Amino acid sequence: MIDVPTAVDSPAQATAMIALNIARAEIRSCMGPAIQEVFAVLGAQGLRPAGPWFCYHHRLDPARFDFEVSVPVNGAVTASGRVQPGMRPVATVARTVMHGGYEQLHAAWPGRSMPGWPNKA
Q1: Is 116 contained in some domain?
Q2: Any idea what the CATH number is for the domain that residue 22 is in?
Q3: Which end of the chain is less crowded, N or C, counting CB atoms within 10 A of the terminal residue's CB?
């Protein structure tokens, strides 16, 4: 359900993004609409994604999620509502791919220890 995480060098990449700082309990009701909103703005501006959407977490807090929902782009994004132009920084990151719908994310991590996340089987 989830690929083994690997360390990869990630180049800088322009993005369209929405910054969210929400209570952990709100993630299920906020994530999907934010992703849809970013894609709608890209479509309205005639832009296409330059890769898969991703989340960029600023800190790990068991009670709150402080992160960006981002879509890489190869063009200039004009701010529109909550959607802002952003930049994914150069970094070495841990990357994995979860296969399946977002609603199954919790099942992708059985036996893995992630502070603040339920480890459901």
Answers
A1: no
A2: 3.20.80.10
A3: C
Q: What is the pLDDT of residues 4-58, one digit of tens each?
A: 888 999 899 999 999 999 998 898 899 999 999 999 999 999 999 999 998 888 8
CA distance 58 to 68: 8
Q: Can you give the pLDDT at residue 109?
A: 62
Residue for token pair 């322009």: 14
What pTM did the predictor assign? 0.74
Domain that holds residue 32: 6-103
Question: For the residues of 31-100, what is the DSSP string, one character each?
Answer: HHHHHHHHHHHHHHTT--BSS--EEEEEEE-SSEEEEEEEEEBSSPPPPBTTBEEEEEPPEEEEE--B-S
11, part of any domain: yes
Per-residue pLDDT tens for 82-104? 999 999 889 898 888 888 877 77
